[in-house]
Design a protein that fits this description.
Distance between the termini: 41 Å
Radius of gyration: 23 Å
Largest sheet: none
Order of helices and strands: HHHHHHHHHHHHH
Number of helices: 13
Low-confidence stretches: none
Helix content: over 70%
Structural class: mainly alpha
Number of strands: 0
Length: 277
C-alpha cells in the first residue's frame, strides 16, 4: 500500500515539475511585458509589482497592430478555407474511389508530410517568382499546398466513418455530386473540420519564415513579421526587451484565446478519426 502511494506521489511530482517547466516561458513573458528595460535585465523572473500598460500600448503602436492583425487574419482565413475545401474533397474521393491510384495518391500525400519545408523553400520561391506569384495570392497558395497533406490525412480517417448508405440515398433522391458532398458529407465531418481549422490556423498565424521569404519588408506585413522588423528597428543599440516581451504577448494572445476555447475539438477530432478510421 505504501509503495502504491509512493509511486503515485512520485508520478504527480514529476508531472507537476514538467508542468512548471512547460509554463515557465509563459510566466517570463507575462511578468516582463509590464516592466521597464532595467527591471527586466535585473530580475527577469520577478513579478512586475504594478501593471504598467504603457509598454503594451507602445507595442501596439510599433506593430501597427490593427493593420497587421487584419492582414494576418486575411491570410489565415483564406488559406485555411482553401486547405479545408481541397483536403476534405480529396479525402472523400480517395476513400470512395475503387481505383488503385486512389491508394497510391493517399500514400503520396502521406509521404509528402515527411519532406521538410527547408529542403524545397528556395526552388519553390523561385518558381512562384517566375510565375509572378511572389505576393499575397502566392503566399495563400503556398499555405494551401503545405497544409494539404496533413489535413487530407486527418480527413481520410474520418471519412471512413460516414455511412455509404447515406450518400446512396441522396443519389437516389437526385442529388448531384456537389450537393452530396456539401449537404450530406461535409456536415458529418464537423468535428474533424474544426480540428483541421484550429491546427492550420495556429500554424499560419505564428509562421515567420514563409511570409518573410514571400512578402518580406513590404508595406503590408503579418503580425510576426511586424514584430521582427520592429525589433530590428528598435534594437539597433541593444536588445529592446521592453518592446519584445509586450509585442510577443500581443502577437500570440488572439490565437491562444481561440485555442483555449476550441481545444476540446482537437482531441475529439483526432481521436475519433484515429479510432474509427
Amino acid at each position: 500500500m505504501k509503495t502504491k502511494y509512493l509511486a503515485g506521489a512520485v508520478r504527480y511530482g514529476l508531472m507537476s515539475a514538467g508542468a512548471l517547466v512547460t509554463l515557465s516561458p509563459l510566466w517570463i513573458l507575462l511578468v516582463n511585458a509590464f516592466k521597464p528595460q532595467t527591471r527586466i535585465v535585473d530580475n527577469p523572473i520577478a513579478p512586475p509589482g504594478t501593471l504598467d500598460f504603457q509598454y503594451i500600448r507602445n507595442a501596439l503602436g510599433q506593430l501597427q497592430f490593427l493593420k497587421s492583425i487584419g492582414f494576418t487574419m486575411l491570410i489565415t482565413v483564406l488559406a485555411v478555407a482553401l486547405i479545408v475545401l481541397l483536403s476534405s474533397m480529396a479525402a472523400w474521393i480517395m476513400v470512395r474511389s475503387k481505383l488503385k491510384i486512389a491508394g497510391f495518391l493517399f500514400m503520396a500525400f502521406v509521404a509528402a508530410m515527411l519532406i521538410p519545408f527547408q529542403a524545397i523553400m528556395y526552388p519553390l520561391i523561385q518558381f512562384f517568382d517566375a510565375l509572378g506569384l511572389k505576393n499575397l495570392g502566392g503566399l495563400i497558395l503556398m499555405y494551401g499546398g503545405f497544409g494539404l497533406s496533413m489535413s487530407m490525412f486527418l480527413y481520410h480517417g474520418f471519412v471512413k466513418t460516414v455511412p455509404l448508405e447515406v450518400e446512396e440515398a441522396a443519389f437516389i433522391d437526385g442529388a448531384h455530386i456537389m450537393q452530396m458532398f456539401f449537404l450530406i458529407v461535409m456536415p458529418l465531418l464537423k468535428s474533424i473540420t474544426v480540428t483541421v481549422i484550429i491546427i492550420n490556423a495556429m500554424w499560419i498565424w505564428n509562421d515567420y519564415l514563409l511570409p518573410f521569404l514571400v512578402i518580406g519588408n513590404s508595406e503590408n506585413k503579418t503580425l510576426v513579421l511586424s514584430l521582427y522588423f520592429a525589433q530590428i528597428l528598435a534594437g539597433q543599440y541593444g536588445n529592446p526587451w521592453q518592446l519584445i516581451f509586450p509585442a510577443v504577448l500581443v502577437t500570440i494572445t488572439p490565437i491562444v484565446v481561440v485555442f483555449l476555447f476550441l481545444q476540446r475539438f482537437i482531441v475529439k477530432g483526432i481521436s475519433a478519426g484515429a479510432v474509427k478510421g
